[in-house]
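The protein record passed on for reference:
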Amino acid sequence: MRHIYILIALLTTGIVSAQIPSGYYNTATGSAYTLKTQLRKIIDNNGDGISGEHVAQDNGYNALYTTFLTSDKDFYYENNGTLLDMYSEKPNGVDAYEYTYGVNQDDGSGGTAEGQKYNREHIIPQAVFDGDSPMKNDAHFVIPSDKYVNAQRGDIPFGKVQTANFTSTNGTKRGNNTNSGYSAGYTNTVFEPIDEFKGDIARMYFYFVTRYETSLNGWSYDMFDGSNNKAFNQTFLNILYQWHLQDPVSQRELDRNNAIYNNQNNRNPYIDHPEYVINVWQSSLSINDFEKENGISLYPNPVEGSLLYIATTSSLQVEIYNVLGKKIITTNVDSIKNKIDVGFLYSGVYLIKLSSDKGSVTKKIVKK
């Protein structure tokens, strides 16, 4: 992967420099679903009385192609300014085809095979919100894509494909969901992007359920649970969170966020602040039954010295991530080998994922 990570001196702040307007997130002071509502007020199109508020703009459906001219050009892989299509881009190879903006744009014809036409792909399908505005026109979750591959996905959710019945030229797949591990709990057809773009798509979903929080309980979709708060079906929350961790924010996402802000006056907070994901959904990602079943406890937390102890009755895989989702430590613990040296970590907030063959739990730790 060609990720460019943003270094920060103090992880406790969790701030990623991405040309965020001064004071933009000043009112994001809460936790859990309160924080999500605070973020929604910052990024929505209502006048919420926030000091220095930036009200989102709806520029209409046709304006998406104009936004794509600055938000979705390839200056990261071939670096030639062609359309950046997540379903055809080969990060470490030669793309099977490329599109130039304004050439072979969807005109109602073609699209019977890859490489013929490009159009607008709604990462959350239009059918979910009946094609209504402003959702239909929101570039934060609408991307340019090959028309044929877009059609192969249709309205199906994203997930981890077990056996593919369609594979695009860059390895994007469609097939039955893998009903095990972090994707357990769903067996129907899903669509899986390549690893390079899994985190991008996850953070688009986190944006969507935050930006349109007050409408979610009126929409039906396999990935959603019908609530305004948690928003996601547990299986898909687990999938999206895993993708968020394994594919951290890239320079391409930072640039895209800035470009869209310049056009529609709002931002994706989960790109600017990746740690907001665990801050909002931590209670849903922590599975108490798993912790009890495996006799898990972490101490001390905060960690003031060099050692973090994990008491457990089982063998566990341990992964520690910084707030950008970059994996820093991978090791194993059990009832005898129960300590991890974290003395080299900077002071700040980290995520620790504990996994066994029975599931996993993610928690927050603080290094002093």
Q: What stands out?
A: Residues 1-18 have pLDDT under 50 and may be disordered. The chain has two domains: 32-284, 286-367.
